[in-house]
Amino acid sequence: MSTLPTAPVMHRPKASVQTPPLHYPLGEQLPASGSATEVAPGIFWLRMGLPFALNHINLWLLRDRMPHPTEAGVMQEGWTAVDCGIDNPATREAWLQVAQSVLQDLPILRVLVTHMHPDHMGLAHWLCERWQAPLWISTSEYQSAMLACSGQSNFGGDATVKFFAAHGWIKPDELAVVTSRVGYYPSMVPKIPPSFVRLMAGAPVKIGERTWQCISGFGHSPEHMALHDAHHQLLISGDMLLPSISTNVSVYAMEPDSNPLQLFLDSLDKMAHLPDETLILPSHGRPFKGAASRIAQLRAHHDERLSELLEACSQQALSAHDALPLIFRRALDVHQTTFAMGEAVAHLNLLWLAGRLARYRGTDGIYRFSTAQS
Questions:
Q1: What is the DSSP string of 231-257?
Q2: What domains sit in the chain, N to C, each tagged with a CATH number?
Q3: Per-residue pLDDT tens for 102-129?
Q4: What is the dihedral of CA 303, 308, 313, 317, to 10 degrees?
Q5: Which pLDDT score is estimated for 71?
Q6: Residue 85: φ, ψ to 5°
Q7: Does pTM surpass 0.70?
Q8: Whole-number Å distance between alpha carbons of 107 and 86
Q9: pLDDT-based confidence at residue 271 (cuts at 50, 70, 90)
Q10: Residue 183 pLDDT grade (very low, low, confident, very high; cuts 50, 70, 90)
Q11: Cα separation of 146 and 142, whole Å?
């Protein structure tokens, strides 16, 4: 959701292009909280709850072996955990159940986090401390998590309110809620491990008998890392490629003139070559096959929204807040509006930076976009 997603905003792209349907090899099967489903040899699917409209996150356990930390020349058997869930009592209890029912008395050897959003990063500190395991994450995600955990972020407070007001969200009672959200991230990620092992685009990561390649993704978060096992046709996609909802892509107060939607669309190109038989393990929804079809659907979805915005801005100049009903076809509460505003600015910024819209700031201090200067 996201000013910071705890998970992607849930709008469901229409299949407005003719693409083969996605295939779900496990059907409707879902693992119960505290248990696991084996989706490939040595790869187990965990599903843990979230207290949001998007009510779950998928986590992954991969059988692993690594050099023993205190015994030279000895390999230690155990697990790599991919992503963590938020830090709350229910998620801690679910992990304790997993330790009893799934880990087979073997330790977690490392905690690999795809990106810094709370549902992925929240319990990393607890898992790392409990099993004396290192955190593996990209540098940008780690540093962003440290800032957010300390309150130096875009996730609430005065800077975020000013940013939203400049894009047309000016209702004082609603913005008061945004001001209070300065503690939003640390409420779910109270602590960050003090050190990490750096993940880098293109770098191999050996986990057990498998070698995965890091695929960087941008737009949803600073330096998201998916993991691709080309030999066994597997992709742990994180939030970059989801089967039924579109990933939140937002502009934030710290980088108000950024173009994250273009970055996100460019990042999808790195996965467009995947064979149809690649089993995609997403952070939300069910494991699926059909990467090319899903990418085509996502592109069509964003193209449709961009076309609608262009048409609307040819009729009158619009702020991002004005544009919300064009992008989101349902009522939004304040929490959802914080996510939706960032995404509306992302769509408008793409068109503006591509020279397809003009942007100006009125005497009221609000940015508006139109097809010609007003």
A1: TTTEEEEETSS-SSSPPP----TTSTT
A2: 37-153+180-311 (3.60.15.10)
A3: 999 999 999 999 999 999 999 999 999 9
A4: -110
A5: 86
A6: 85, 165
A7: yes
A8: 21
A9: very high
A10: confident
A11: 6
227-265: per-residue pLDDT in tens? 999 999 999 999 999 999 999 999 999 999 999 999 999
How many angstroms separate the Cα of 194 from the Cα of each of 53, 133, 146, 222, 356?
32, 12, 9, 19, 45
How many Å apart are CA 111 and CA 84, to the nearest integer?
A: 8
For residue 236, the cross-strand partners are 227, 281
Start-end of H helices in 49-157: 89-101, 118-121, 124-131, 139-149
* Residue showing tokens 């007001």: 165
Strand pairing class (135-138; 108-112): parallel
What is the residue whose two structure tokens read 């810094």?
Answer: 116
Contacts of 348 (CB under 8 A, 6+ apart): 309, 318, 320, 323, 357, 359, 369
Q: Residue 67 is encoded by which pair of tokens? A: 């050099």
